[in-house]
Amino acid sequence: MAGILSNLRSTVIFSVILAILMYVLYYLMVGDEYNASQMTIAIMRFAHVVAGVMWIGLLWYFNFVQIPNMPNIPDEQKPAIGKVIAPAALFWFRWAALATVITGLALIGHTGSFVGTMTIGAMDGFANAKDVFLGLGMWLGLIMAFNVWFIIWPNQKIALGLIDAPTEAKAPAGRKAMLFSRTNTLLSLPMLVAMAGSQTLFG
Known about the structure:
The protein folds into 2 domains: 1-34; 44-200, no CATH class. The chain is built from 7 helices and no strands. It has helices at 2-5, 8-30, 36-69, 78-111, 114-118, 129-159, 167-200.
């Protein structure tokens, strides 16, 4: 077991195998009641949740751990954060955001509520509460993903020196990235209420 846990790739592979075995267990337990369509939706929702956990987890890492503690790090140690930790975290952060959006849209399309969700229930006169909740959550997520790819990431590249830019541009770029990251943190809880609520409050 130590050999598995000492290598991240091995750990993730083993975790995926255990996750697959959970689906196999479900299949064995339901027997004749097995529904392939429900299984497909379950797997798609699983992928959506995994991507979302990675995305929001890193968003909260930036806002609750890295940003507040940067002033406490000695100047000579800060390059390790800016050149190693932050770029790696931002890689997973932005691609997890994209994966969350793609899997979410695919899931909505597969369940047949794409138009209702996209219009936040307007097509039904806002009578379908699930479409309203899910639509609100989806649009908040899309706004957050837009912020990641088109505001936070471009400004972080400047702030971290990952692209050529005037020295005087780094501080404003860093502040802009921080403010939009903080905006996403603000939106994250209502987004999660809408997403979770659409599945649990309305069946």
